[in-house]
Amino acid sequence: MKKHWLLCLVFVVSITHATTKPEKLSVALDWFINPDHAPLIVAQQQGFFKEQGLEVELLSPSDPTDPPKWVTAKKADIGITYEPEFMEQVDHGLPLIRIGTLIDKPLDCIVALKESGIKTVEDLKNKKIGMSSSGLTGLMLRSTLAKAHIKANEVELVNVRYNLMQALLSKKVDAVTGMMRNFEVPQLESLGHPLVTFFPEDHGVPNYSVLIFIAHTAQIKDNRFPRFLAAIKKAVEYLDNHPQQTWEDFIKIHPESNNAVNKEAWFSTLPYFAEDPGALNSNDWRKFAEFMFNNKMIKSIQPISRYAVVLPEIHDFQLTMNEPPKRHSLLNA
Q1: Which of 67, 130, 141, 145 could disulfide-link 150, Cβ–Cβ 3.0 to 4.6 Å?
Q2: For 92-109, what is the mean pLDDT?
């Protein structure tokens, strides 16, 4: 009788799991699929989303400013955006909140050819610097120069639009700012152009997360979100342990991305993914909010709890079915 009862229990549990349909979750990327999104791609390909009971749809916008709009309008459950722009959006009253982090460091940098003789930021004085925009990129440059006691009128800024590499290689400018350290930098070096790079976080700009996961403030208790982050965390660990295999798996599904630039970027981006996407460095966020405020990029500094939420950590989808999720931890300034 006992054996019969156990068999029945196993049967019931099996049926319960078999009939539990994955919950759909839409994620608006910041751009078309590329190596910056590797953890999401790996989580799909390796079944980590499925393990968490999720069916994730990745949406590629035609404009990087779309994800916050889609999340605000509830056309996407999660969006990927940039911390500086996100702080501006919160400043404007949009009902958005950060629920996780994809890349927890800046990626842009100032670049010069090694043959130029530029070795330090101080060497940029009286030089021509190419840039493609004057917004946040310009602010990062001004802050970096100020740290080296270089006044704004002691450099010549040249708008090269989006031709940063061409402007640098043609010697139209002495250096460029806004170049991505995981894309253009390894690409140029692989082409035989030794470079000198200056990272903003090393020269007076507070560290910030270049890519974050955001959701609507009304949805922060959605139990799909902790499971999503659990899958991303597992994917980052898998990426660290299987870089070559994950690249090969990626280009099988996205053959249009199989080129030298993306291959270099795939491996160059790995060190920048947040090992724990749910973790939050409130001190970094506070310092960067102060930086934005002091440079008149935002009108007021919000409590950290208005910018970000720390979700409960979930390791197994069964926990979401058998145990109520813990309350969310809001970090207050």
Answers
A1: 145
A2: 98
